[in-house]
Amino acid sequence: MTRRVLRVGNASGFYGDRFDAVREMLTDGPLDVLTGDYLAELTMLILGRDRLKNPDLGYAKTFLKQLEEGLGLAHERGVRIVTNAGGLNPAGLAAAVRALAAKVGVPVSVAHVEGDDLMPYGQDALTANAYLGGAGITACLRAGADVVVTGRVTDAALVSGPAAWWFDWGPQDHDRLAGAVVAGHVLECGAQATGGNYSFFTRHDVSRPGFPLAEIAEDGSSVITKHPDTGGAVTVGTVTAQLLYETQGVRYRGPDVTARLDTVRLAPDGEDRVRISGVRGEAPPATLKVGVSRVGGWRNEVVFVLTGLDIDAKAALVRAQLAGALREVESVRWTLARTDHADAGTEEEASAVLRLVVRDPSPDRVGRALTSAAVELALGSYPGFHVTAPPGPAQPYGVFASALVPAGSVPHAAVLEDGTRLTVPPPPDPAQTGGPEPEPERAPTPAPEPAAPPAVTAPTVRAPLGAVAGARSGDKGGDANVGVWVEGEEAWQWLHRTLTVEAFRELLPETQALAVTRHELPNLRALNFTVTGILGDGVASGHRFDPQAKALGEWLRARHVEVPAQLLPRGGGGPDTPPTAAPEGTR
Hints:
The chain has 587 residues and is of the alpha+beta class. The protein has helices spanning 21-27, 41-53, 61-77, 90-104, 135-142, 157-167, 174-187, 236-243, 311-322, 368-375, 430-433, 489-498, 501-507, 552-558; strands at residues 6-10, 33-36, 80-83, 110-114, 125-130, 147-149, 212-216, 222-226, 251-253, 258-260, 265-268, 274-277, 280-282, 287-307, 331-337, 351-360, 386-387, 395-406, 413-415, 421-423, 460-464, 470-476, 479-485, 516-521, 526-531, 560-564. It is globular, with a radius of gyration of 25 Å. Mean pLDDT is 92; it is low at 436-456 and 571-587.
């Protein structure tokens, strides 16, 4: 007997997301499962520091506050809740949810998933967590849990785990699991799937985008949508943007399945509805990723404002005056942002910003003594000297690294309301069962030059890349990815031919000394670039002006290239005007 579709909604894309989203998702339309994603690399470091102060913490406290109202609403509507808000202490959060349920008089069964925490782990590790799959979540739901709390699972597992429970999938159902993983990846960042952080945001009202939901079918296909009369939009473009976010390569490897992103097909399915189909899956790798965070040292920064004439000379003077104070500091990074305009109408528009970031194992070398030395220049440096903040103490910073461990070495377990522990075995190893192993990821090779349609050879206009292409970027540890897509076949032929690795490096000079890999996703008319090492030790180290590479794609879109004139929006408009080659939502 075929089961009806499973309706899974998401109410959180990060720790600090919109507080009211839990209530909104439970009251604005029907759901079967409500998920909440609270974890990220930086969040694990924050929770690790919380745990140092109080061993009973280490979970996302906001989630408990959201449940004060949400728990009763979910119970009334028969909605299961699945969240990774347990962070470093899923057992502690599960106990806190039970106490809250007793307090508000809501009879619910709470289970949790554990085994991801591998501490102690190596020297100086603050946190070390394996990325578990959805099988523990599935086991909890099969045992009757109304609320499932996890630690570090993959973001997509919050959706694939409930889907495997609902449809009774097994570990060998690779295509179905892969379809659910892709749906989970679209939902995991909340409003990013409904028009948030979207390159073509001016096409839609995104002042308060609703949160997304997926209608998952038994064959693993899905429809991405949102509750009626909520803000934002769900289009092929918004879903494409999220599919490209923080992925590296055409194989999206996870603990339950390897999803082939190059098989994903998107199609409009009505207003604010996009169908995902055709997803193929392969066996998962025999290893699990482990995210490790450490306190890397101490950092500080001073931001000098340089106004008017002689900006370069003013910057050089400050650097020379502080050279002695910086001599013993391990890492010194100066950046000058020329935000100044000639003959400016306001003082702010006439000013540039010189940023000094220092890092060192010792807080003394980058503490108040250093920032005070900077401020002491106030009456003896460049004309117009001022800084954006007073001297401050050094702050600890974190570094993130990843490793691999055998999947069978991680004690994945589901812990039920009554304390019963259910061991969750890893998926069968293809090498042991004789099944097909996933093909190795090959280094991309230059594809043959596609035969460009005659129209693409027409005269070109120098214009921003973003007049034709959308982009979304993000971080994976010290690496960044930039996904770029277009909306019509002619534009795809042009993008595929034009945006080579060499062209990418030329457009983004900060990547020229780094390894850049291009991945092709023709079904999405998209290219995905991985830039290795651009973020140093990761977001928590504060290495860059944009430490999570969130705006790297928008910088790329702002760079000017030669664009075939007929690909540009009518009237030579720009990225705010839908291209004439293919209206929003078509494929």
